Fold:
Amino acid sequence: MDLTLNASERAFRDEVATWLAENAPRERRPPAGPAMVEFDVAWQRRQFDAGWAGISWPAEYGGRGLSLVQQVIWYSEYARAGAPTETGVCFVGNAHAGPTLIACADEELKRRHLPRILSGEEIWCQGFSEPGAGSDLAGLSTRAVIDGDHLVVNGQKIWTSYAHHAQQQELLVRTSTGARRQDGITWVVCPMDTPGIEVRPIRTITGHDDFCEVFYDDVRIPLTNVVGAVDDGWRVAMSTLSFERGTGFLPEQVELVARVDELVDLARTRTDRTGRALIEDSGLAERLATARAEAHAVLAMTLAVISRNARSSLPGPEASMVRLLFSQLQQRVAALAVDLRGLEGLAEGSPWVHDYLYLFATTIAAGTKDVQRGIVAERVLGLPRGR
Amino acid sequence: MPLDLVPDDVQRAIVDAAVDLLDPAAGAAALRSRGDGPVRDAGVWEKAADQGWFGLALPEDAGGLGLGAGELALLHRELGRTLTAGPYLGTTVAATLFPSPELIGGRPVGVLIADGPSEVGPRVTGTFRTDDREDAAAWLALSPTGAAFVETAVTVEPTPDSMDPGARPARVVVDTAARYAEGPEAWTLATVLVAAHLAGLAQGSVAASVAHTAVREQFGRPIGSFQMVQQRCADMATRADAATQLTLLAALAREPQLAASALLVASDAAVTNARDDIQNHGGMGFTWEVDAHLRLRRAHGLRALLGDAADVRAAVLDGPAARAW
Ligand SMILES: Cc1cc2nc3c(=O)[nH]c(=O)nc-3n(C[C@H](O)[C@H](O)[C@H](O)COP(=O)(O)OP(=O)(O)OC[C@H]3O[C@@H](n4cnc5c(N)ncnc54)[C@H](O)[C@@H]3O)c2cc1C
Structure:
């Protein structure tokens, strides 16, 4: 238990803060379309050129190999500099596919893809969920059969974020049916320009096309694209999900503190019909104070998770508690941002309405809040298994 | 390791020593019997002083153990988990601010909080409230801007009993010169230690619910396998973890806004978890026998100790967001 940074860490923080102050994009991220893709890729490229892409990746794969403490410093300064914390089109490559390839793929696949992920040349998407397999991912049924040195894929994925912008996909397919439903799944790199793939964007509650349905009709993928072994994809996929439930949310978490600050300032300057500052309203003050206190708590919980992870190689299930509080807090803060603005808060196309609607995803994607609670109950608390 | 929120071996040893010394069954029994006289168990108190609890955060050359507020927070969390009552807060903060062999040795100090017109400075005057009327041999008047060590009060007049059986409330009139320490340090430390105690209560409720729901069977299954119960327990665990980690962070940062935030989060965790724990115990939860109501009672009492909800809110909202690192 210790919060102090040593001299070299303080120097690192200053270096990071200086670079970010000079290089983080100042304009707001466009919410959709080619402008959004261009924005995300340009920012990825700028970080790559300066050596700041893949900060947690080993140096041999083009990453920076930062220690956990340095990562905390980088992510914190990143958010404090106002750099984009939205889940951009480069997110899956940086945070899911890349780390999975590093952990489980052969050298050939690593050399082919990792540098392009870091440089922003390759956008990746995640083809896991299916119409019949969401929370119950092991129920997936998109089939692949081996034909010579290829897998032939037939079936459908859904909710695939940015599939319409991606060049590559981390794809889970069923190659056999084993004793357990987790057996017989295969993790394969699927180039999105392979013949037989059809991508249909889905309009979301924000009004933008953020995710897609993806259809596979006799899609032939070389067996050399399989990561891990055929039928061993569940293990490979779990190495990805444990990150998703881990510490990758730090930039958003630090940013949330700043977001609450803006709302506190807004409540000090905005007045109600009688001319009284909104912060004098005890109901609003309570919501704001709780939001700020809980935002601090989320950071403390994340730091505790990181501290534990520094001591053991396997991330523990405690990250699900952070996720549970953080995802719901994000939604409460977004609701406050709307409520504090009165009628103006309802303006379609405004950033706060967009956030309010967009953040409904936080308790659904990457394991719903109900699923997270189940993990806490059975894996953190050790309660008897349900069902 | 820097930026680290997990207790190291030395810090864990402090927790272990506390667990050995503090007996949850005895703590609960004392609260349940609601006797008159001092709240503290004299035997435990003496051993705690011998183990250096009150001077934990003082440098060794001042007679302390050379540790810090983080270690104090771990200790006070154990007080909460074990339902141990007594003037630990006032004595610890007084010994830390006004070190002396007597205080480090466990001369019990009660906490005074302004209650009406009053002044906390080199001269302390006015009306205060306390929960320590039966235990205090001296007083620590606490305010957000400073703390004063008061040897004697003019009057100590009991006020009606609190629902918190660990409190012996009184109205205290003071008019005396005092040793005074200006600055927010004492208030911040006291806030963190109350939060730590509340976090311990919240954790105690989680442990009690898990222990009960894992073995109590209905419909042929342990009730802890029912999803509704599991989800309630998961929310309890999340609240307790939020309270614990934020309290430790605030203790290490020694920063007023983080401390107030910890108190807010820990107060909610302690009260809400105690309520959920009663629910998880069914009819048993409604009985005097089961400890759940003791944690609920203490949680309400401690939540109100340093001020009301509006005071805590104002402290959390004061200025821009604090940074811990
Ligand atoms: C914005 C967004 C982006 C996404 N991006 C991707 C992506 O890029 N790639 C990808 O593969 N997927 C993606 N997803 C899909 C996401 O992973 C799934 O939506 C999620 O796993 C939930 O599955 P589902 O939608 O089928 O809902 P369901 O599993 O049908 O859940 C519906 C409701 O039932 C509850 N429920 C289900 N099972 C249980 C249970 N056992 N106990 C208690 N309650 C239960 C859930 O909590 C939920 O409230 C994305 C989703 C969103 C919203």
Chain A touches chain B through 58 residues (CB under 8 Å). Chain A has a mean pLDDT of 94. The CA atoms of residues 24 and 138 of chain A lie 40 Å apart. The beta strands of chain A are 124-127, 143-147, 150-161, 168-174, 185-191, 197-202, 211-222, 226-227.
